[in-house]
Amino acid sequence: MSHQLGRVVSEILHQYFGEIVQKVGHDLFIYGTKPIPMIVKTTGLPRKQVVDSLRTLVKFDLVSFEPSFNEVVADYKLNPDNVLLLIRYPRYLLQIKTKFGSEAEILVEELLQQASCTASFLLVTVAAKYKDDKKKNITLVKLRDVFISIATARYIQQAPVADKSEVPSLEPVATIVPDIDIRQLAQAIATDTLADVSDNIYWKVNFDRFHQDFRDDIMVKAITRRIDENAGELMHLLLQNMYLTSAEWAAESNPTPVLDLRDAVDRADRTDCDRNLLQQYMDHYLRVLEENGAGFVVRVGEAGGGQYVVRGRDAATQLLLAALDHTVTERLGSKAARIFRLIRTKKYIEEDDIQKHAMLPNKECKELTYKLLEEHFISIQPMRKAASSGAMAKAVYLYHIKLHDVAQSLREMCYRALHNTLRRAQHTRAAHARLLDKQRRVRTIVHTMRVRGEPQQHIDDVEETLTPPELSTLKDVEARLKQLSAAQLALDKNLFILNWYFMYPH
Amino acid sequence: MSSSKNDDPISEKILNVAKKNPKGISDKDILAAVPELSAAELVSAINKLLQEGLFDLYNQGGSLIYRLKGQTSKQAVKGADNEEKVVYNLIEDAGNKGIWIRDIRLRSNIANTQLTKVLKNLESKKVIKAVKCVNASKKKVYMLYNLEPDRSISGGAWYQDQDFESEFVDILNRQCLRFLQQRADKIKNNPKGPVVGRTQSFASAVEVQKYITDLGISNVKLEVEDVITILNTLVYDGKAESSVLPDGTKVYRAIESLIPPPGLVQVPCGVCPLILKCCSTGLITPQECKYMDDWLEN
Ligand code: SF4
User: Fold this and answer.
1) Which of these ranges, A28-37, B76-85, B107-116, B138-147, has the smallest mean pLDDT?
2) Which of A50, A79, A360, B50 has the fewest C-beta atoms lying within 10 Å of its C-beta?
3) Which residue range or ranges hold the DNA-directed RNA polymerase III subunit RPC3 winged-helix domain (chain A) (predicted)?
4) d(CA A172, CA A61)
5) Taking the domain A3-80, which CATH number applies?
6) How far is B107 from B121, CA to CA, in rounded Å?
7) pLDDT tens for residues A205-237?
């Protein structure tokens, strides 16, 4: 695992859990698996703090454990990929809100914070929290219904269960959508205790289900950009069918017969596409989708009026290439991107031929080629000509692209950039810690005063302890932090494509 | 060559035969090629051509042989010594592809210094010229003065005095893209369906060529081939894709990238030349970074 990943993970842990957890996490990252005494030794932290940190980390699934060879002691291991997901939380919330409404968002948010809890606990906590909020009008019944729908749609799942051994191992269980007794829960809220409710099934968020949505979304958007909304909708329906018939991340889905697709089109109720057009010209759309849709979809057979397959692996590759093109364009200019794509199209190409096809002045072309080489976007392969050509023989250098390596270095770059934005945000927060703290205090005080109904005059007095220059600095700082976290989200999306590409063996 | 301007059809035919046989032709060859010619016509035509100085006359094994003259061979031979003749012949043989000085030396066995002198001499007499080769800037080739360099040497429409005209290419690249973009949207929600829409969004090289010619931005005549070269740069730019229609014509269509600019290029680090040198501590750090400052300013 790369050094850069380690730096990112460390920053994220710092941001979300503070310095001590960061230390423990970083220690685990560097040494791989190790038991508690070893962590205590290398970090120099008190045992209690290490244990507490591990508890947090294990709870959020950021660290896993397994028995070491003496069976009663556990070895701990960091899961850096899960740490990276922490940045993605806002996207999960947005996604669930778009699909299931704001109750779902509140439930998932609470569940993310709890890492895992029982359905009863979750519903009761949320209901209690919003008891007084008349605007949202959240009822237990509504919450239960939403809970059932998101569980049915597999956005949440049952948490694995520990077995009874000394160092328990976690066994995943199949999710069964539960019956929830509302009366019992209402009672629990009234008496403010969950003691009477016997519920020992724990739930957690199923990230992978969200990731499938993200993937589908990228593919649909890409097709919409390339062709139009109707083609995008068709892609969406194909993906829906893939969800029902194939393994989640299959490199190629099981085939969908055109007849099924036609049914789906007739049933579809999307507003952002022209359904009549799609119904009338579905065959045409399928043809164009196959021929001009970047290879996301292919026709595989004629049974049932034709059969179509979604090619996840190819789509990931195409999207990676698109991301690479953008990166090369921004870093080295559009002419370099031209050379980059040229080399990719020709697979192996000589320097002279690059110049000929790219239509660039000799010197510029060479410079750009060398820059691409320097930044590891392309590689070079020397080829000796046969010895028979005598004194005139000179080595030929062929340029080409090792996609896997390039993807790797792009990922490293993303890690670096992510680390830098996190670090910068952390630095900004630290630099203005005193002021941010003051603002937080003022807000709390004002809030309590409002609740108590104190006169406006007093509230104003408290608010004015923040001077105008302080306020303007705060505004500035907030804007910066916001920009930085938007950038982090964008980088995370970029990494998503890369990781999707790496999911398939190449 | 100027001889092709000859508008008399008989002479032209004879000249064509002669061009095909640089070793020379006999009366028989001419008659074989232009069977409708009477003996008298033949004689008068030949005489005319001889008068114009286009043919050399030889006697070979009893029959007369006419050989087409290189236009300048007179001058070269006049007052030239043996070396010059040898060099001249080598250069003449190379035609409009030219010959490299090194190859002249190897084949003629003339010492370097003397060869340079000979070449200078011929050059000053405007018998030959040196042409810079476009794909190897240091390499000069020699050819007869009146020849138009081959495309592989001169680079064709894209070169002016052996200098690559990148601005011209850029302009054409942009104009071609504009043309394709004008019709690119035809595929979207086309009431006749996407297959028809796609066909409407395609443009063939011939159409683009016409558009460019009508724009009048080029003072050189662009061949379809040239336009294809430009259209291909658009494909390499990722701004167009090419397909082949059932009848074999190659067509182009403007496209957009599959994704908007990804996260990496939205942050300064993605375009930062120092990204590999940027560390948590030291001279270049994200905390103190100037690029970040500027980016966060707005
Ligand atoms: S933080 Fe600044 S110096 Fe470092 S990589 Fe980013 S832009 Fe470059």
Assistant:
1) B76-85
2) B50
3) 325-401
4) 13
5) 1.10.10.10
6) 19
7) 999 999 999 999 999 999 999 888 888 888 999
Fold of A210-310: Arc Repressor Mutant, subunit A (1.10.10)
How many Å lie between the alpha carbon of B231 and the closest alpha carbon of chain A? Answer: 11
DSSP code at position B25: B
- Alpha helices by DSSP H, listed for A192-304, are 207-226, 229-245, 258-267, 275-280, 282-292
Q: Which fold has domain A315-401?
A: Arc Repressor Mutant, subunit A (1.10.10)
Is it true that A101-205 and A210-310 share their CATH fold? yes
**Chain B residue closest in CA terms to A230:** B189
Selection from B78, B79, B57 nearest residue B67 by Cα: B57
Kindly list the protein residues whose Cβ atom lies closer than 6 A to any atom of ligand 1: A 420; B 268-269, 272, 274-275, 278, 284, 286, 289, 291-292
B147 or A443: which leads in pLDDT: A443
What is the ipTM score, two decimals? 0.80
Contacts with A263 (C-beta within 8 Å, 6 or more apart), sequence order: none
CB neighbours of residue A305 within 10 Å: 12
- End-to-end CA, chain B: 66
DSSP structural state of residue A103:
H
Q: Which domains does chain B have, with CATH numbers?
A: 2-69 (1.10.10.10), 74-154 (1.10.10.10), 165-254 (1.10.10.10), 265-297 (no CATH)
| Residue listed under structure tokens 């120092």 | B274
Cα(A454)–Cα(A464) distance, rounded to whole angstroms?
16
Q: Separation of A486 CA from ligand 1 center, angstroms?
A: 17
Q: Per CATH, which fold does A101-205 belong to? A: Arc Repressor Mutant, subunit A (1.10.10)
CB-nearest to A334 from B191, B237, B241 is B237
Q: Collect all residues of chain B within an 8 Å Cβ-Cβ radius of residue A218.
A: 259
Q: Identify which of A318, A330, A362 has the shortest CB distance to residue B258.
A: A318
- Could you tell me the pTM of the whole model? 0.79
